[in-house]
Amino acid sequence: MKIAALQMVSGLNVAANLAQARSLMQQAAALGAELVVLPEYFCGMGARDTDKLAYREAFGNGPIQDFMAQAAKELQLWVVAGTLPLVADDDQHVLNSSLVYAPSGECVARYDKIHLFQFDNGREHYTEAAVVQAGQQPVVCDIQAKSGETWRLGLSVCYDLRFPELYRALSAQGADLLLVPSAFTHTTGQAHWEVLLRARAIENLAYVLAPGQGGVHENGRKTWGHSLLIDPWGEVQALHASGTGVVLGELSRDRLQQVRQQLPALTHRVL
Residue 112 and residue 235: Cα distance in Å, rounded? Predict the structure, then answer.
């Protein structure tokens, strides 16, 4: 099954970001991808964190969700809408949610980001919890390739990457492809992005697909990019460093089983 991570440099205008996303989805479909995954905040990187309050949507109802459902149906793709802001428990917060769409256009899974980013090195300051309400529940879902083969997705977002217990929970539920749509800062990404992603692949003997935001945004923020596909042995299969682009690769059930048989670490867990 061919899959693709779509790297973006999202700006302030939601409509322009959706047009960019659609173009990348079309490129991936033309290359034979059956699953495409957009980055975190694909629909908007605002001038202020509170900007996302203006275009939040109720789950199952809104122009961003309609756009994603239509794109999935027209392009006959499985689409993971990296994250978009959904209505939370109060008016001052949103849920940072990843939605999975089937080629029918139906939304078949939703994951609300659990771990919220906080960072302050004296020059850069981020407190995601000021505007985002944390999710509570790990989520897996099954997708089916045109060949009839089934793959189980484990959903996560960006800062979740630093919490291996989440991925163990996804692995325990049978995930064989871990998704990590992200908007890593340039500072933290340069230091930790690839090593964390490879670790999650290695320790869970699973594929990892991680689409990122990658470049300098209209709001001045600089994101790391380096969208990756990593195999269950921890080897990088494909990478796109900066700017918009498509990271294309292929899942192999034989490769997954080979790695898990020759190093059966998942069967040796005791905790």
Answer: 28
- Residue 222 annotated to the active site: no
Location of structure tokens 């609300």 = 112
Domains along the sequence of the chain with CATH:
2-268 (3.60.110.10)
Q: Identify whether 40 is a catalytic site residue.
A: yes
Distance separating alpha carbons of residues 99 and 80, to the nearest angstrom: 6
Q: What residue type is assigned to position 121 of the chain?
A: N
Q: Return the structure tokens found at 72.
A: 């999935």
The model carries a pTM of: 0.98
Pick the closest to residue 243 from 214, 263, 221 (CA basis). 214
40, 183 Cβ separation under 8 angstroms: yes
Instruction: Provide the terminal-to-terminal Cα distance of the chain, rounded to the nearest Å.
Output: 33
Nearest 5 degrees, angle CA 138-CA 144-CA 147? 155
Query: pLDDT digits over 85-142, tens only?
Result: 999 999 999 999 999 999 999 999 999 999 999 999 999 999 999 999 999 999 999 9
Residue of 43, 107, 141, 158 marked catalytic: 158
Question: How far is it, in rounded angstroms, from Cα 209 to Cα 141?
Answer: 15
Instruction: Given the residues 52, 57, 113, 141, select the one marked as catalytic.
Output: 113
Q: For residues 250 and 121, what is the distance between their CA atoms, to the nearest angstrom?
A: 38
Main-chain phi, psi angles of 258, to 5 degrees: -60, -50
